[in-house]
Amino acid sequence: MVRLPYTTALTTLFSYGLLFAFGQLRDFFRKFVDWFKAKNIKGYAPICLGLEDFYVRRLYLRIQDCFGRPIASAPDSWFDVVERTSNDNNKTLQCTSNTTRCLNLGSYNYLGFAAADEYCTPRVIESLKKYSASTCSVRVDGGTTKLHAELEELAARFVGKPAAILFGMGYVTNSAIIPCLIGKGGLIISDSLNHNSIVNGARGSGATVRVFQHNSPAHLEEVLREQIAGGQPRTHRPWKKIIVIVEGIYSMEGELCKLPEIIAVCKKYKAYTYLDEAHSIGAVGQSGRGVCELLGVDPADVDIMMGTFTKSFGSCGGYIAASKEIIQHLKQSCPAHLYATSMSPPAVQQVISAIKVILGEDGSNRGAQKLARIRENSNFFRSELKKMGFEVLGDNDSPVMPIMLYNPAKIPAFSRECLRQKVAVVTVAFPATPLLLARARICISASHTREDLMKALDVISRVGDLVGIKYFPAEPPKIAEADHDKLE
Amino acid sequence: MDMALPVVNATAAVFARVSAAFNAPLARAVVFGVHIDGHLVVEGLLIAVIVFQLSRKSYKPPKKPLTEKEIDELCDEWEPEPLCPPIKEGARIDTPMLESAAGPHTIVDGKEVVNFASANYLGLIGNEKIIDSCIGSLEKYGVGSCGPRGFYGTIDVHLDCESKIANFLGTPDSILYSYGISTIFSVIPAFCKKGDIIVADEGVHWAVQNGLHLSRSTVVYFKHNDMASLASTLEKLTRGNKRAEKIRRYIVVESIYQNSGQIAPLDEIVRLKEKYRFRVILEESHSFGVLGKSGRGLAEHYGVPIEKIDIITAGMGNALATDGGFCSGSVRVVDHQRLSSSGYVFSASLPPYLASAAVSAVNYLEENPSVLANLRSNIALLHKKLSDTPGLEISSHVLSPIVFLKLNKSTGSPTTDLDLLETIADKVLKEDSVFIVTSKKSNLDRCKLPLGIRLFVSAGHTESDISRLSSSLKRVSASVLSDY
């Protein structure tokens, strides 16, 4: 967890307070100016009333150029960022035709499949010529091709479950599956930092939702005991079923989930477990099989395993792997399977080829090399950043590392200065993170070479000094290897 | 009688003594000039007892929280339901497997069939130009975009696609989503919040229903495609409401309803919307690229200026033969979604090759508007040939590319209806190699429209394909429905 020092908290709150005050002042003057201008549509309520979009108008728009930067090449380890200009103080941005070649520390490209790959791309192009870009129909009508069936089998085998089902988008996978599994009269207990798709799915299902403290099996046990003993709210009837939803790697913290303890608690209280491995499948584990392999959990102990193909496999879409009966039930009732256009066949082929490379079934050991490289890269980068004195979150072996910024002024400073020095980073602020805990998030890829990482470290260290985010004392550079391991 | 008399005598004596005590003045007890009679003593005692009772604490059974042991017992006793219900006997679980592209002719389970199950309205599956542009994209950008739009997932082809669609439709701006059905269920919650009023058609499909549910607004449904019902609903909702300035009001309709093939009368809807001051959200997945002289959708078809429709959404998985979706409208509408639409902000962006496929598809449509005439003549021909099918009737609009056939006479239960229709579809596929499908319904879907056979007509179908379908359908339905 993040330990926020008092002085930093005070200065951050002061900064936000100042921004808020200025924003209110400008809104006040804007009201006067608008009084004289004619209102354009009479009788219709405005799309956003009053303070609903205050944050967007007064805080976000000032630093809009740090977000949504367009690129003009594949999101590989080096890419071309399009330069944008603004004539009205960042309210609108126009793209120019100039691009800058930058080091990519922001895309989810954990195993380096983002750009054209020597094994995958020829097969993808072949499948495009055979099946065309889309099937134009839903899975149950005319949208199931041999590729879809092959991928479902392969994904199930890769993850270690009996069967799997495919969807064209990771977000829809969560939002449309959870209502099929649980309804009114059921209880969903989800981690406090779960992704928006899980929150939407839980809300759409109609079940009661309770939250447990992030990654705390003790609090989960407390919540479970209280809820089972108390029953449904007001009627106190026993719950129909309980599902506990956790993620493998939390994308804003870079932490791994405490999976063995949580599974033990769920088994004791007969709750079902749902594991969302969007960021961890393919990126962690000895052979890339995700958090279960890394932490030594048997996949049969987790009832439902969900994952996406966007991050480590360089494609799009999501899957659910579970027992045969659950998958049959989902195939008959899940709305995303019955109403949504099936996944595009070239994207399916990309995932099949990527999994074959990872498993080594393409006849080479590129998969094992990639997995080893991403592990090495993440551990090296994280330890170096910590040595420099940055506050870095996350566990070892996780390729996601957030660097804490806290102060709202440091967000654009860090982002723009890094871009000027040709390193593209991602900065995240409210509402994706709590208000005081703004951060820069680095995603390491297997395609980064050692030189790339050294350059990144150099730039980040210089910018960190300029901006003032080295919250911890830096370790002196002449430190022996043995001591360095002890301090990890 | 003997025993009774002494008892009676004794009781009478007691009564006499008590009444004497009551009524006898106590000579010595004169307090403040008031004679203390016997009954005053009794009343005084009564008051004392009442005061005593009132002053005591009322009995509340003590609140004992459950002990750890009791919680343990409850947890041990509790049995959850199984995660999924058992599979029903005889449920159909196998789907037909395609072994080639889903064009007008395709290979299903090893056999060459005529395909009426893919919404390939303009016949763009297999189009050379589109495939070439996809190949160029794949070689340049790879397959996935590896990030959400806010974090380096915006690729220049996305921006090109957005401006192309906005130019084509004639709207100021548009925004791309990465999946067809996520478009509508992200757009509705972005604009409609708790306390707003939404009037929706009761025949909208599941994605719209999900969006309405997630928005937490008050939703009122009107009868499917019935303008009188819509007018009366709007009248009822606006009559009592004086706080009109703060509440946002929306009408949600589809242009061509997936569940019935009806077309919404847009001119009437726009007239009503302007009268009662509602905004319109129009879902155009099946009419974009199909209706209108040049394929610009329902607004062109009815001659309504495009500015009058506030929000247009569509999935690109139908006429444009690609994937993903878009939403189009004024600059304010589109900009608002870039930060508050969950399917846009929290999800990876559309793969770049699909965006370039969309651009090529729109280019093709602009250059070859004759493909729309082909589609229209195919639909008309199909209507003509299927008008005398025994047992089935066409219930969709004459211009809709989704031709909806439902049973003339329902058997009474939806499951037997569905069984009959699926038997017809299976036989048509097995005996005559024509691939048709029934409409599917999830148990989470609350639309109550009847199920039927859905035929998706494409501009790539030939006359012989349509003749084959109609003769096969007539033969099979005659044999299957002869008993009903």
Structural class of chain B: alpha/beta
CATH class of the largest domain in chain A: Alpha Beta
Q: Helix/strand/pairing class of chain A, anyone? A: alpha/beta
Kindly report how far apart the N and C termini of chain B lie. Answer: 90 Å
Mean pLDDT of chain A: 88
Helix content of chain B: 40-55%
Summarize the structure.
By secondary structure, chain A is an alpha/beta fold. Chain A has helices spanning 6-36, 54-60, 120-131, 139-143, 146-159, 170-181, 196-205, 217-230, 259-268, 291-295, 324-333, 335-339, 345-359, 366-388, 410-420, 450-467, 481-486, and strands spanning 78-85, 94-104, 163-167, 187-191, 208-212, 242-247, 272-276, 304-308, 318-322, 400-404, 423-424, 426-428, 439-443.
Could you please describe the fold and organization of this structure?
The complex is a heterodimer of chains A (488) and B (484). Chain A has helices spanning 6-36, 54-60, 120-131, 139-143, 146-159, 170-181, 196-205, 217-230, 259-268, 291-295, 324-333, 335-339, 345-359, 366-388, 410-420, 450-467, 481-486, and strands at residues 78-85, 94-104, 163-167, 187-191, 208-212, 242-247, 272-276, 304-308, 318-322, 400-404, 423-424, 426-428, 439-443. Chain A has 488 residues and is an alpha/beta fold. Chain A is globular, with a radius of gyration of 24 Å. Helices cover 44% and strands 14% of the residues of chain B. Chain B folds into 2 domains: 105-121 and 369-481, Aspartate Aminotransferase, domain 1 (Alpha-Beta Complex), CATH 3.90.1150; 128-367, Aspartate Aminotransferase, domain 2. Chains A and B meet through strand 1, helix 3, helix 4, helix 6 and helix 7 of A and helix 3, helix 4, helix 5, helix 6 and helix 7 of B.
Topology:
The complex is a heterodimer of chains A (488) and B (484).
Chain A (H helix, E strand, L loop, with lengths): L5 H31 L17 H7 L17 E8 L8 E11 L15 H12 L7 H5 L2 H14 L3 E5 L2 H12 L5 E5 L4 H10 L2 E5 L4 H14 L11 E6 L11 H10 L3 E5 L14 H5 L8 E5 L9 E5 L1 H10 L1 H5 L5 H15 L6 H23 L11 E5 L5 H11 L2 E2 L1 E3 L10 E5 L6 H18 L13 H6 L2
Parallel strand pairs in A: 2-11, 4-5, 4-6, 6-7, 7-8
Antiparallel strand pairs in A: 1-2, 3-9, 8-9, 10-13, 12-13
Helix pairs in contact in A: 1-2, 3-13, 5-13, 6-7, 13-14, 14-16, 15-16
Chain B lengths: L3 H20 L6 E2 L2 E2 L2 H18 L12 H10 L27 E4 L2 E5 L12 H14 L14 H14 L3 E5 L2 H12 L5 E5 L4 H10 L2 E5 L4 H13 L9 E6 L11 H11 L2 E5 L14 H5 L8 E5 L9 E5 L1 H10 L1 H4 L6 H16 L2 H17 L5 E3 L7 E6 L6 H19 L1 E2 L1 E2 L14 E4 L6 H18 L4
Parallel strand pairs in B: 4-14, 6-7, 6-8, 8-9, 9-10
Antiparallel strand pairs in B: 1-2, 3-4, 5-11, 10-11, 12-13, 13-16, 15-16
Helix pairs in contact in B: 4-13, 5-13, 6-7, 8-9, 14-16, 15-16
